[in-house]
Each structure stands twice: as C-alpha cells, then as structure tokens.
Amino acid sequence: MKPEIAFTRELQKICPKIKDYCMGFYIHTCPKMRYKGNFSPSYLLCPETYTWHPIEKCRPLLDINKYSRFEQDRSKEDENAVTDLNDVSILFKRGVIPYGQYRQLKGNSDKAEVEEYASLVGKKCIEKLFLYRSS
After folding, report:
1. Which domain holds residue 51?
2. Which residues does the UniProt record annotate as the domain N-end rule aminoacyl transferase C-terminal (predicted)?
3. CA dist., res. 22 & res. 20, Å (int)
C-alpha cells in the first residue's frame, strides 16, 4: 500500500470528519500515477470550470487529448473568475486604488500581467489582496 493511502486511512481513524483527501496532481500518461485512479471514488478537477468529475468519465477524454475539459456543459465557466479588472486593487505610492484608476495614470502596459494575476487569484481572494506597483 502506498504511504499516502496508509496515512490517509490513519487520519480518518483519528478524525472521522475527514471525508476527502486530495492526492495532488494526476498525470494520465504517467504509469506511476495511475494508481491514484484505482481508489474509489476518485475525481479529477476540470481545468476550466474548477468542478469535480468522476475519473471514469475523464479517462476516455485524457486518452484522446492530454488537456481536456471535463465539464460537458459548455455554458459553465469558472464561477470564481474575475470579470472586471477594476476589482483588482493596486497598492501604489502608499495608497490603494482600483486598477482602472492606476491604468489612467500609468497606461495599459501591464494589462496582460494584471489579467493573469486576476485569473490566478480568483474573485474570492482578489477582494482581500493588493497588487503592488512601484511605478
């Protein structure tokens, strides 16, 4: 038995409230990782909508393409996505301003970087963080 599975079972004995365990990355083409899918139930996270899907439904998609969207409903999107860059707070010259105001002062040169930051941080965290800009 893999050490992480034994560890998880021990944790569950100590704290029965633990119902789920994230085994980290799953690389479909790596034989050493395929054991992760042999434990039931196993779910994979859709890389576009961040929703969980049974591995049995994901495997055929991964057999065809190593990058696959698991969510079949094309209208579903990441609910945690930042849709308005003005939601990004910029820490600039010892003050906090919305990104739109910062852009008026400094231009659009960092727009792609701020978009990437917003997509990585997500809507829930963006309200609590400041993106530092020195100039």
Report:
1. 3-64
2. 4-46
3. 7
Residue 52 region, left (φ>0) first, then alpha (ψ -120 to 50), else beta? Answer: beta
Residue 128 lies in a domain: yes
Per-residue pLDDT tens digits for 32-67: 777 777 777 889 998 888 889 999 999 999 999 988
DSSP E strands in 8-115: the ranges are: 43-45, 52-54, 89-92, 95-98
Residue 93 lies in a domain: yes
Q: Are 26 and 38 in contact, with CB atoms under 8 Å apart?
A: no
Q: How many structural domains does the chain have?
A: 2
Is-above-0.70 flag for pTM?
A: no
Based on the fold, state whether residues 7 and 60 are members of the same structural domain: yes
pLDDT of residue 101: 94
